[in-house]
Amino acid sequence: MSPVTRNLRPLWQRRGRTLAEAPVVGARKSNGFTLVELLVVIAIIGVLVGLLLPAMQAARESARRTRCQSNLRQIGVAILAYDDANGSFPVGCLDKRHGGNPGGRQLSWSATVLPYLEQAALWEQIDLLAAYDSSANAPAAATVLPFYLCPSTSRTTSDREGSFVIQVPSAEQAMAAIDYGGNYGAAFVSPSANGVFLYNRAIELREITDGTSWTLAVAEDTGRGRQWDGEWINGENIFDQHLSVNEQQNNEIWSDHPGGAQAVSCDASVAFLSESMDAKVLKSRCTRSNEELLHIVSDY
């Protein structure tokens, strides 16, 4: 065999090896994860998930809060549009039901402003001569209105199921809920009925002498059911404030946003009301003409 031919043979042949001893081209030694390495990887993934989840939850709550703010802004603009057309805010509760008036219609401000929320067709379905919980108004009352619902609402009463208030004894079906209440005023402040959504009486802008930007029109009052008048068609979906934000769910400002609740003032501006806000200041924002702001400023 010539030297040239000999050099063309595979290296393993030139070294005197058999075919079984020939190296496998491209073969590498493969080692799997050890138990320690696997545990370290799992621990790192756990830490990353622990860091990311709060951030994701915060981002989701921020989006929900923005949507709630948009709802209140729409409501505030609708109230001002109603005022432009009618010369006053809507009546808070029309024909309130009570012992001397058991058959009261008890229709709400939030039903009255529907035409100004692009819901004129729904408004026309409401029989103004019938009660809010009558069979005549049952189909309209069962209509869920997303702009009346806070997406963060979770702490609901036992007679609230999602977007609905469960069936009342006199109604044919469940009614759609509302998470926002009209401001009846500050409780235990004289004179009473000192807010802007009252029983059987409409408030004009000129009566809001404390200032439209200071005086609240509508605020979160979330999670209410039948016993707490949580239907958007029910005129009792108003509140009077006595305690601080988020201290009492029934008939006061309450939300599931961390740290406070949102509200829209009589000029349609939306603000976040902190739980740390002094109750005295909060109540001053619920009255339309008591001039508490002057006293509050003088106290500091």
Describe this structure in words.
By secondary structure, this protein is of the alpha+beta class. It has one domain. About 30% of the residues lie in helices and about 10% in strands. The strands form three sheets. Strands 8-6-7-9-10 form a five-stranded mixed β-sheet. The longest helix is centred in the N-terminal third of the chain and has 52 residues. The model has no long low-confidence stretch (mean pLDDT about 85).
Pick out its properties:
300 residues; alpha+beta; 8 helices; 10 strands; 30% helix
Count all strands and give the number: 10
Average pLDDT works out at 87
Supply the number of helical segments.
Answer: 8
**Low-confidence spans: pLDDT under 50, at least 5 residues?**
none
H/E element string? Answer: HHHEEHHHEEEEEEEEHH
For the CA atoms, what is the radius of gyration?
33 Å
> Gap between N and C termini, in Å?
111 Å
Sequence of strands across the biggest β-sheet: 8-6-7-9-10
Fold blueprint:
Layout: H1 3-8, H2 11-14, H3 35-86, E1 93-94, E2 107-108, H4 109-112, H5 120-125, H6 138-141, E3 160-161, E4 164-165, E5 175-176, E6 180-186, E7 216-220, E8 238-241, E9 260-265, E10 270-274, H7 279-286, H8 292-298
Parallel strand pairs: 6-8
Antiparallel strand pairs: 1-2, 3-4, 4-5, 6-7, 7-9, 9-10
